[in-house]
Amino acid sequence: MKKSNKKFLSLVLSLMILFSVSAVAFAAEYSISNPYENIDWNTVKTYKTALHSHTNASDGDQTLTQSIERHAETGFDIIAITDHGTTDYGWTKDNKTGIHTLLKLAGRTEGEISPLGENGSFENGMTYSYRTAENGDDYLKIDGKKDILRIPFGIENNAVSVNAHVNSWFVDFRDNSVTTYKDAIGKVDNLGGVSVINHPGEYTKARYEVRSQNAYSESNFTYRYYINKFAALLEEYPTCLGIDINSKGDARTRFDRILWDKLLSRFSKSGKTVFAIASSDAHQLDKINTGYTLLLMPSLDSKSAKKSLESGEFFVASHCIGNYDELFEIESALKEFYGEENETFKAVSASRKEIEERIEGIENGKYKAKSSIGSVFSVLDEDGYLAAKTEPSVKKITVDEKTDTVSVKTANALIVRLISDGKLIETKKSSEADFDLGDYEGKLGDYVRFEIFGEGGIIYTQPFLLNADEKDSENSAVDKGFFDLGFSDFLFGEINRWVSVLGRMLKK
Q: How far apart are CA 432 and CA 414, in angstroms?
């Protein structure tokens, strides 16, 4: 063989070896558990769902008829009426309980109970007809065209238990004695229903924190206790989906996404997950369209709705964001990708500055030390209707495990944010939202999740677990030695809140 040919052959073999080594070096590092892997994106339908809403049967300002009318106006496909301690047995029924009587005596609700008729019209002129279908589900047909599904047996449990509120659906359960999270979640689990822990920041008093770094800090005994408390409940009762992360405009839940990430970090180490919902928790008409859940289902029925919730085949969404740090990150990304003349950038920037002024005002004494921030970014007008031209939506999510890439296809979105272990990993323009997880070596925990933001609000995906099959599922998400003190531990949050207030007062 000629010398030149030997050199050429040697070069070819070297390149082949180098390519083989490179291929091994850049092989997929992750097994990615995709909560949406069984979705047929060509046929699935997305249903706007209200999982938490009130009427004057408990402490809501509006009657049932008024509530259903506003839900229909604002595009809801599925509605659960979840009054405190009051099971929803049907929209044509008088669901009044002793809770209504007590709240009326206390001045917390007014007006008469107003169920729907079998047929009728709303004040806005829309007509409706109510029927029970052959599958046993109740539907309200609007203007002879659109069906709205009623979720059966909606209720907010623990009506007299200092904000230890638990929503449940699909099973007939009510206990209006003084009960704990465990009482409600355990009994719903035993009956085969589905539940969720509502607005945990109310119970923990994290809603009163001023800075994100203080909310749910595990160096704080109170917050570590509560993280363990919720982890223990979710670990013991698999029919409890998880927690509410954005409701009623997000002023009080703005730090509950931090709690979600804390729980996810613990559970994902054992290859397990925690879902999240968003809702309006509407006690007033102008709150009905604040937060909502988007169920991915083949058909509009309660069996499919229950399956969607149990499997995590849904997104959660809000028209409001109250977290300063999230808004700062979103503002920075909008500025980078779209410039300062972008209208959504201007709106986010204005809200972020307003919240910053509130935070600094509380800290420097302009406002009372016990004040709550209160301000939020919102794309709703003063009556609660969408003021933006478009809402973001998710059209498809695919996972390519050969390349460790998660692709998020959207409509009417501006940016997509990748989150892991509570940290923002990267933000991309919505048109370029292909995330190669191999690019983030050393930055990812045991899960990732995505947030889709656009002119009309934000959507949160459920978590994608990483290498879940390699984890020991027997490992607990709860600290050794933890003991749940039950109902009395709400005092921890109260004490923690006033310690923070005192600290702010002494700093002045």
A: 10
